[in-house]
Write a structure and sequence with these properties.
There is one protein chain. The protein is α/β, with parallel strands linked by helices. The protein has a domain of 56 residues. The chain is built from one helix and five strands, in the order βαββββ. It has a three-stranded parallel beta sheet with strand order 1-2-3. A two-stranded antiparallel ribbon has the order 4-5. β1, α1 and β2 form a beta-alpha-beta unit. The longest helix has 12 residues. The protein is elongated.
């Protein structure tokens, strides 16, 4: 798939360490994408392992808690909740 001169948006459910997002951005840039921007529903800045990595568009910043719902699961449970909740 040619990416030259293409804007390539990447959508993530959650940005935690930043490792996946940074890998995706680098990959699409190597393929020749003109721009790569990351959009995420949830961001946990306190967990970031990639210095300076942030999504361009962030729905909500959350603390370092384990969240479920809206597609996020724990042991394949709670994924279909219609809201995001903290697993305790």
């Amino acid at each position: 798939m040619p990416f030259c001169c293409s804007a390539t948006p990447q959508v993530e459910d959650i940005v935690d360490t930043g490792l996946t997002g940074e890998t995706l951005v680098r990959h699409f840039r190597q393929l020749g994408a003109a721009s790569v921007e990351l959009c995420t529903m949830l961001s946990k800045p306190s967990r970031r392992e990639v210095a300076g990595f942030e999504a361009k568009y962030v729905g909500f910043e959350i603390p370092d808690t384990f969240v479920v719902g809206m597609g996020l699961d724990w042991d394949e449970k709670y994924r279909s909740l219609g809201y995001v909740g903290v697993l305790r």
